[in-house]
Amino acid sequence: MSYEPPFNRNARIDSLCMEIAELVGMISPQAPLAKSPVLHRELRIKTIHSSLLIEGNGLEHEAVTAILDGKRVLGDSRDILEVENAKRAYDLIPELDPHSLEDLLLAHRTMMNGLVADAGRFRTGNVGVFDGDELIHAGTPATYVPEVMANIVGWLKATDMHPLLASCVFHFEFEFCHPFADGNGRVGRLWHTLLLSRWRPVLAWLPVESTIRQRQSGYYAALAKSDAVGSSEAFVEFMLETIRDSLIPFAKPQSTQELAKTQTLAFFKENPAANISSLAESLGCSKRSAERIVAELKKEGTLTRLGSTRSGSWIVIEAD
After folding, report:
1. Neighbour-count burial of 168, counting CB atoms closer than 10 A to its CB (0-12 exposed, 13-18 middle, 19+ buried)
2. What's residue 252's pLDDT?
3. What is the CATH number for 208?
């Protein structure tokens, strides 16, 4: 008989799913979250920084950014390696098969390379989940981990549950099993993002990990509550709320003018030496319209010009 994770839908879960579907529907194919490489990079840095902070990494956001830019950073060598590994692991998202145990092991090997001796292998000893010094969950006995993980991944592949819900249930089942000696939290969050991206590609860039970091005690409390009752509803509700709240900043309706401004800033951030004609071509508008948008952004203080018209460059001024 195939494995079926203990889970019961309720009115709160159904309501959150509808809210998330509405928010996702508000993100147009041309929205920055869907199209902007600059925003993608910023969100990926935010995601990696937040996920590693949860695990005790001590590097500041600026240091993480510098490491991902290939710059030398002063800091703990393990913290630096964690950032480098996480970047490589998140870069694998387009290639990973969410229903493959081999790919799950690959993600762990990439994430934990040089940090643990058994990177890319299921644990051979017993472990627990701790919130500080408090044990909140004892993982599956090591002998049964390969079988349990095969069952969970098999269920994920075969289930007709909505992908949004299935991603949350899998996240709980993964953390409940705790298949690795170390790195379960960061790999579990990575896999959740992978599953969301297979439902809607734009969600590959959603900084869910950052919202989890802001609610870290709630994350552990939801795990503990679902663990105590033997069913994942509390954790699924927590994760759906987290996904919803992570979406809200990107799903606000924008007027055509505001959208054009957002796209203009993204364009000049990527192409600081570009001219107005190139901007107009990118926006699909007239040169005169592009000039008006640039004038408004300069007046608002979010865009400025450094140097001459012919040889200068555009500077996007970030909000504090």
Report:
1. buried
2. 66
3. 1.10.3290.10
What whole-number distance in Å separates Cα of residue 153 and Cα of residue 2? 11
Note whether 181 and 222 are same-domain residues.
yes
Kindly indicate the confidence band of residue 319, based on its pLDDT and cuts at 50, 70 and 90.
low
CB 253 within 8 A of CB 28: no
Q: Does the pTM exceed 0.85?
A: no
Burial of 307 by CB count in 10 Å (0-12 exposed, 13-18 middle, 19+ buried)? Answer: exposed
Same domain, 157 and 241: yes
CA-wise closest residue to 169 among 153, 183, 187: 153
Q: Treating both helix axes as pointing N-terminal to C-terminal, what angle do 37-54 and 256-270 enclose, rounded to 10 degrees?
A: 80
Using only the alpha carbons of the chain, give its radius of gyration: 22
The sign of the torsion formed by the CA atoms of 266, 267, 268, 269 equals: positive
Of 250, 283, 299, the residue that ends a domain is 250
pLDDT for 67 beyond 60: yes
Give the contacts of 266 (CB within 8 A, at least 6 positions apart).
Answer: 32, 35, 36, 38, 39
